[in-house]
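Q&A log
Question type: sequence-to-structure
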Amino acid sequence: MKLSLVLRTLALASLVALPLAAQQTTHRAAPAPDGANTAGNALPASPGMPTAPAQPTTLPPGPGINREELTPEQKALMKEVDRMRAEKARLDAQVALAEAKRVEELAPVNAETQKLAAERALRLAKAASEAAALEDERAKLERQTALESARSAARLSERNNKIRELEAEAKQLQLESANTVARLSNEIARYQKEEEARKVAIKAKPKYLKDPLVDGTLYISDRRIAFNGAVTEQLADYVSQRINFYNNQSSEYPIFIVVDNSPGGSVAAGYQIQKAMAGSKAPVYVVVKGFAASMTAVIATLAERSYCYPNTIILHHQVSNTLRGNMTVLKEQIDFTNRWFERFGTPVAKKMGLTLPEFVKQMYANDSTGDWQAFGEKAHELKWIDQVVERIEETAILDLLPPVSNNTPAIHPPMSEISGVATKTDEKGRIYFELPPLSNPFDAWWLYDPQGLFRAR
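Response status: OK
Response body:
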């Protein structure tokens, strides 16, 4: 408020002084002597007020204001201006004193602020240094942890591998123990059955006769070879090996190939069996109990001696084959199959006193399908079988032993294992027999299968 009042007063004084200055300038006045001090009569510029730019004039400045010539109002105003100047000087002095006191009072605060800022900067630097050290320590600990984790993982993996090895060894020991227990159990069961068998057949022994047919009874010794199912390479190997084995035992007594049921099979396998029979020093006799067809019928017919029951069925027919290919290939396969039939059918026809075409003609004369079957007596008349017997005695069946386990070689393995024929079920739930593949590319199936039970793999 005081500053505003001062400014208004100064402005009023300027307005009062302007007419006086203009009045003085209308009269020429003598210039003031050099060095004259007129500042005392001039109005000082008020601080804070804008200063008017100097106006160019051709008149020299007039003399200072003579207060005696002023009107009472102007004098009063000038007096007020002087008072206000003094008041302003006092106020300026007070402001300067207050500013000095403020600076003096703020000096400790500023010093303290600078001190605190310095301390803060020092603490920040120290904290940054400590943080860097902690970061290094953390990185070091992380590296150590990672290394320890890797070592732990390696140790754990090694222990797991060791555990697995121990588990495998334990399983192997358990399996061996189970096999040992099973073997011992089988031996105990076998021993018990042998004891039972000794009580039943204690005085019985196989009969070895050079002429096994005595008073209409055929005596078969333990020099017997089971021949059942399809004729395959595996069955041919089985029969041939046993023919050789029994020859090495004795060439004096006959070997019996006992056929329960066989539909025939591979031509090449049948030829292998025939050659093993022909090369045997001991006579090889074929005994057919159920039926023999196709390749098996040829083996029985061409044997050195053959036997069957009256109701045994023997069946001869032409060779068949599963043909595929173009017409030229089909013709070649048919020609090759006919050559197989000529090689096997001709000896059978010759034994009957017929030529091969006559033999084929009679096949279709007796049956429209060409499947010429005959019971035992008729087969004997046709010279397919040498002797028809009413009684066959298996003199080598002396025990009641159960089937042995898979861990022990079978004495009499199942025919499916011997021949390689697998029993399977098709998608319609029908059971069939899967024939093994013919490894001989020139081989052919000579097999009687009206029901389609045998299927080539």
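Response note: Residues 213-401+413-456 form a domain with the 2-enoyl-CoA Hydratase; Chain A, domain 1 fold (CATH 3.90.226.10).
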